[in-house]
Amino acid sequence: MSDTTHFTITLISPKGEPKAPQKAAAAFVAQCGVLVRDRVPITVREWNKHKGAPESEYVAERYKEGLWNDLMEHFTLPECADELEAEKERAKVKKFALAKMAELFRMWKKRLWAKYLEKKTPPVFEGYLAKQAAHWPAFKAYKESEEAEKLRAKNKKNADKKQYHHKMGPGGYETAVPKWDKKEAELQAKGIMPEWKREGWELRARNWFLGHGASYDEETGDIVCGDGIRIPRENWLKTMKDIKDGTLKFKPDREKDMLTLVLGNDEKPGRTRGFGPKYPWSLGFAKDIDTYRSRERAKKRKAEEEGDMLNQLKARIDNQQQQIDELKLMRQGDQSADRTLELTVIPSQRRSSVADSEVPADSARVTDGGPGYPVDGIIEKTPCQLHQKMANLSVKVAVGYALPCTPGARWHGRDIQAGYARVGVDEVVHPFESLELEIHGAEGETTLGEVKGGIILWAKEYIKFAGSAPWTTSPPPSSRRKSPTPPPSPQRSPPPEYDHHSASPSRSPLPDLGRSPSPPPPPAKETKRKRVNNTPSMSSNRRSPKRKQLSPLPKVPHQNLPVLAAHCTDE
Questions:
Q1: For helices 230-245 and 203-211, what crossing angle results, to 10°?
Q2: Same structural domain, 146 and 53
Q3: Residues 150, 13: one domain?
Q4: DSSP for 391-434, written as a single string
Q5: CA atoms within a 13 Å half-sphere pointing along the CA-CB vector of 551
Q6: Backbone φ and ψ of 443, nearest 5°
Q7: Percent helix, strand, coil in the chain (nearest 5)?
Q8: Contact 455, 403 (CB under 8 A)
Q9: Closest CA to 11 of 77, 97, 83
Q10: I want to staple 7 with a disulfide (CB 3.0 to 4.6 A). Which of 24, 175, 264, 557 is the partner?
Q11: For strand 75-76 and strand 7-8, is the pairing parallel, antiparallel, or unpaired?
Q12: Separation of alpha carbons 310 and 435, rounded Å
């Protein structure tokens, strides 16, 4: 371009691309390519700086500034209302121009190397490109190096990940969209409504399908897809049917729309599918421009994700609880036979004192004056864990500290409900940030994540302390009844008026009016070891030899004894 050539640009796109007049817009892009081919050596590997790269391998900022200034010597931008607006307009055009220069420089080097591989002869650098001839040996050495080969393999691997390729040619959506609009006008003139208008599609969804090889059916107006995009088309039809039938609840949310759901991969920042790389999200989703820089959407999505994770955790806990219940039923079945055998065993005559010291119900632990909770026993600020009941399990949801339950204590000037204590929340266990509080915070907080760093009320039952056993108060002595213990009955000698072989009257135990009579004990097994009399005696503790016990003679009056002949005398 000669020094005297100059263009005035009258229209600029929101992304900074000159649009009108068309001749000026085309000259702007062409001059970007001329400048990089003339000023930037082909040995420069990257346009932008990489970490640790020497300055000779990238285009420094001062060189980019020089390229921009040389470009604008031939162009004049539209006038703006004030200087601030003009600076913003100029910054957008500069960003577009430098990005276009990087693209054109990369494509030019790619074409040079492709032609060399095809012809095996170095390119001829003539005219303003003559200065690049000195850089060709270094450029060729790098392209044939192992480093370049690894980079090509990496780039090819990344390129292979792309599933769907557009069929619009170098003009992209900019040249294809007017053709599609013309075709739709012809169909509507025949009384045929295009499918995307009939079914209420988003415009970018129509553009994506048509840009990747789809076409219109001349008779129905439906979109016809080839094998390359057959799967997205089938997914689209199935998803639309599920939404109409009510089996799928879906609400579009900016880039999380129907097209993103069907394709199964997220939208890349800085560009919009269906409109091309020149359309950022602020243009591709213009109706959501108010939420473009808002964090409320991100917070809402995070809360939904945490809610889904919490629901999955609850479902997993319910499943585990169901398995535990099934195991309990199996054990009860196995123990039924043993319980039947236990019923045949003679019960003990001694009463258990455990039956009268049962643990009271949870609802009576505090309100009825019964045993308390561990938090009732602390006298100072104490670290603790906050648990939550899920199914029949207690799950830790937060870590903090508990405050003493002193008489007359209040929480933010309010009364403390029975069964609750004051706790501080230091850290919330993920993903329980969205757990709803039973008692809302002092400023109306409803979830556990919102009260982090504050003091709330928490059920005493689910305040746990590390390494502490449940703290209970001793019940009053009157609540326990001692079982009567029969006094020991020492062995007694039979009275003299009874025969030793007759039944000896023994002292019967006191009758227990509160229990039914017990059956007699079973006969003891005979063993070879004889019973030892443990009755203490006044004699020496030395063990006497065992002797055969003889029955004593009967005691009868003397006068009844028979008179033997040997006892008679002559007198």
A1: 150
A2: yes
A3: yes
A4: TTEEEEEEEEEE----TT--BTTBPPPTTEEEEEEEEE-TTGGG
A5: 7
A6: -105, 25
A7: 45, 10, 45
A8: yes
A9: 77
A10: 24
A11: parallel
A12: 8
Same domain, 132 and 203: no
Q: Has residue 458 been placed in a domain? A: yes
| Residue 218 CA: distances (Å) to CA of 181, 193, 201 | 14, 10, 19
Q: Residue 1: what residue type? A: M
Domain range spanning residue 69?
7-160
State whether 41 and 135 are in the same domain.
Answer: yes
Contact 406, 494 (CB under 8 A): no
Q: Is residue 568 part of a domain?
A: no
In tens, the pLDDT along 328-354 reads 777 776 666 555 545 444 444 444 443
| Within-domain flag for 311 | no
The last residue of one of the domains, among 270, 294, 318, is 294
**CA angle (555, 558, 564) in 5-degree steps:** 110
C-alpha to C-alpha distance for 472 and 153, rounded to whole angstroms:
71
- Are 180 and 203 in contact, with CB atoms under 8 Å apart? no
DSSP 8-state secondary structure symbol assigned to residue 383: E
- For residues 397-410, give the mean pLDDT: 92
Phi, psi of 150 (to 5 degrees): -65, -40
- Check if the beta carbon of residue 403 is closer than 8 Å to that of residue 423: yes
Which of 245, 279, 294 terminates a domain? The answer is 294
Total residue length of the chain: 571
**What is the three-class DSSP state of 553?**
coil
Quick one: 58 and 190 in the same domain?
Answer: no
Same domain, 271 and 223: yes
268-295 pLDDT per residue, tens: 887 888 888 877 777 777 777 666 556 6
Kindly report the pTM of this predicted structure: 0.49
Domain count, the chain: 3
Give the 3-state secondary structure of residue 382.
strand
Strands 382-390 and 463-464: antiparallel
Distance CA 108, CA 103 (A): 9
Model confidence over 26-78: pLDDT tens digits?
999 999 999 999 999 999 999 998 888 888 889 999 999 999 999 999 999 99
